[in-house]
């Protein structure tokens, strides 16, 4: 746990300090596109069998780092562990998305909600500690959670959704109930992330995956306000080290300025946003993370390198950029495509640092 970091490029970029290359990691970098992940998942028997087993979670977290020169590891888990600990009964059917046995759609269900006992999530914190030890200083470890709004979407809908009809109906019909759900979620997420920090996470990320489905005005009231409530409760330091935080709102390009006003170190951006213009808007207030379209990885290596360079050139030769995809990597991505991407990001960004005119 106390091993010195051999590669702190990711943390320095989040602090907007100069780096000799642009650090890169990928959302969902430990996943089904890797044959070794699929083999471990088969041994575990199910997704939750994988996520709740400390040894397996450690193994799959390190798999992409053994294959690629990534600059950060991210805890292998799921954003829905918190509502599962609230007693909603999370399950993953083969080939399907997450499902909850219980849904939260009326006063009685909302009244039952409470911040869960963090001991119910001990398997997550034990995995964080195990992964941090296994990394032995190779790269930093990112902890994460879903945002209060994103968790609420799943809790009300009972799973994924194409139109968010149920959660939006509740929000407009009974905003009082939605605010109650979000307040409980925010306090639970803050406790959850603080426990990850105590267990060894060196940065934390809030995935507001569905914030972008909200109308302007509703986003500020039902998503942004509760992400702020999380951040206001988070530990800023642990064991003498600053713990940077990242907020990623998919579809949140409209609200970059407001997200940048949060107490966050970095904003994650999806692929619809121009990084250069985003940097002009936020200045040096926050670092930016992103934002290659994940489907670029289905092109050939030359095209992948070309598109990666466009993202880097758009941001420019300035500190404060963490390269990532604009959303999670597809399970159908050829593994060799990631090699092409990581190599291109590292080599082109190093050339940029060496050229004052870049």
UniProtKB/TrEMBL annotation:
It is found in: Cytoplasm. Substrate binds at residues 28-32, 78, 154, 209, 327. Keywords: Cytoplasm, Decarboxylase, Lyase, Porphyrin biosynthesis. InterPro entries: UROD/MetE-like_sf (IPR038071), Uroporphyrinogen_deCO2ase_HemE (IPR006361), Uroporphyrinogen_deCOase (IPR000257). One of its GO terms (cellular component) is cytosol. One of its GO terms (molecular function) is uroporphyrinogen decarboxylase activity. Its main location: cytoplasm. It comes from the Bacteria. The keyword Phosphoprotein does not apply. The record marks 78 as: Transition state stabilizer. PROSITE patterns: UROD_1 (PS00906), UROD_2 (PS00907). Its EC number is 4.1.1.37. It catalyses: uroporphyrinogen III + 4 H(+) = coproporphyrinogen III + 4 CO2. It is an enzyme of class 4 (lyase). Coiled coil: none annotated. Residues 23-32, 142-158 form the Uroporphyrinogen decarboxylase (URO-D) domain. GO terms for biological process: protoporphyrinogen IX biosynthetic process from glutamate. Pathway: Porphyrin-containing compound metabolism; protoporphyrin-IX biosynthesis; coproporphyrinogen-III from 5-aminolevulinate: step 4/4. Catalyzes the decarboxylation of four acetate groups of uroporphyrinogen-III to yield coproporphyrinogen-III. Belongs to the uroporphyrinogen decarboxylase family. Homodimer. NCBIfam families: hemE. This is Uroporphyrinogen decarboxylase. The lineage of its organism: Bacteria, Pseudomonadati, Pseudomonadota, Betaproteobacteria, Burkholderiales. The gene is hemE.
